[in-house]
Specification:
By secondary structure, this protein is an all-alpha fold. It has six helices and no strands. The chain has two domains: 72 residues, Winged helix-like DNA-binding domain superfamily/Winged helix DNA-binding domain (Arc Repressor Mutant, subunit A); 46 residues, no CATH class.
């Protein structure tokens, strides 16, 4: 039986790392934000992956959002398809709109952040 449906308790540090990764931060950004080494973040992610029986960052993101917002993993195929279509629609509208940065483009953001820090 798959253990993904069971409740898994993460430590405080694992929860902090999982949340930041789920929101799209890189390992380096998580390390800077928490004041720890990038290798510590990598080791913490390995422990999280072992506890949750997952292997990818997108699976961690899905797990975190589903458990945080109370979304069931056992959705019917119709509900999954409907959810995917809704999310794709939101994404497409956001990309077309261009009033705000809907997707996260890391290269430009990191460079801008460095320039701002240098000016301060």
């Amino acid at each position: 039986m798959d253990n993904r449906g069971s409740i898994t308790v993460l430590t405080g540090r694992e929860s902090q790392v999982a949340e930041r990764i789920a929101w799209g931060a890189s390992q380096k950004e998580v390390a800077d934000d928490l004041g720890i080494s990038r290798y510590t973040v990598d080791n913490t992610l390995r422990k999280i992956y072992q506890k949750l029986h997952i292997g990818k960052m997108n699976e961690l993101s899905a797990w975190w959002f589903c458990t945080t917002f109370g979304i069931s993993f056992a959705l019917s195929p119709l509900k999954r398809a409907l959810g995917a279509v809704c999310l794709a629609g939101i994404f497409i509208v956001g990309e077309i709109n261009h009033d705000f940065q809907f997707c996260r483009y890391r290269e430009g953001r990191v460079r801008i952040e460095r320039i701002i820090r240098l000016k301060e």
